[in-house]
Amino acid sequence: xxxxxxxxxxxxAEAVTVVGPAYPPNAVAxxxxxxxxxxxxxxxxxxxxxxxxRPFEQPVRSAVAGWxxxxxxxxxxxxxxxxxxxxxxxxxxxxxxxxxxGATPGLAYPKKIVEPPYPPNSLAEGSVVxxxxxxGNGSVLRVKILQGLGTLTGACxxxxxxxxxxxxxxxxxxxxSSEAYAVFVIRRPILPPRLPE
Length: 197
Prior knowledge:
The protein is mainly β. The chain has helices at 2-10, 57-64, 151-160, and strands at 15-17, 31-40, 43-52, 68-69, 75-83, 95-97, 109-114, 126-134, 140-147, 164-166, 168-169, 175-176, 178-186.
């Protein structure tokens, strides 16, 4: 029975249309947003923000409200959005630990996310959207690229493989494999001004 539930969760929601959120122009540091999308007949009917850093909630709401799934898809979908800190080189840890207080029953919840490094040979900015298959222990099993961004795509895929989730649970309380969507929003790095010599 648990196997059947796992398979149903894994093939549950296939995104047809995804749009990454815009990086707020007033944001000087990165942040993250965790949201549960409530989908009926393939359309997002409502959005619960489970965790959000300011000022990132509204851009995420606006973007994911337009996501579209197969017409037969119904249920709750986890979306984790990381707005990468706009520095060329990280000055601190690239890991963020998230509290799972807002977890939704039946969905996994991220407990550790890792920001991707910004490839020094890139000038791109925008969004990378990934579909994740999650194991019953909360690790990332498979990654499918839904929206790429040149050389930044590989960095995002490598980073998301290090993410850890609190596993989804069945109604009987057993851990189960599940799925989630990861979105990386990347702004071109801000370079410090050169000092006069």
